[in-house]
Amino acid sequence: MLLDHQMLPLIILLSISFVGNLPLGYLRENVPKYSLRWIFYIHASIPVLVIVRQFYGFSWHWIPVTLICAAGGQILGGWMWRRTQP
């Protein structure tokens, strides 16, 4: 159960997960699939998310939620890149 004093840290964690992956998804869309840069852009935010999750004291149970937010940021970032292309 999530307590009231944990709501702000959870919002911060999920926001970092989503917003931090927007530029990474944007960059990922412009490189060859399965290249080293493509793999880097997908995984670059994970160490930051681990540090923030541990800093706020969230258990590993929150990893799937942060990964869903990160995937959403990647998808939206890729969509933003495709929208800028003629």
Protein model, in words:
The protein has helices at residues 7-28, 36-43, 46-55, 63-84. Helix 1 runs parallel beside helix 4 (63-84). The chain has 86 residues and is an all-alpha fold. The chain starts with 6 loop residues before the first helix and ends with a helix. It has one domain (18-79). The chain is 72% helix and 0% strand. The radius of gyration is 14 Å and the shape is elongated.
DSSP summary, beta strand count: 0
Query: What about the largest sheet?
Result: none
Total helix count?
4
The number of domains is 1
Q: What is the beta-strand fraction?
A: under 5%
Mean pLDDT comes to: 95
Q: How does the helix and strand content classify structurally?
A: mainly alpha
Radius of gyration of CA atoms, rounded to a whole number: 14 Å
- The global form is elongated
Question: Low-confidence segments, ≥5 residues, pLDDT <50?
Answer: none
- H-E string: HHHH
**Proportion of residues in helical segments:** over 70%
Distance separating the two termini: 48 Å
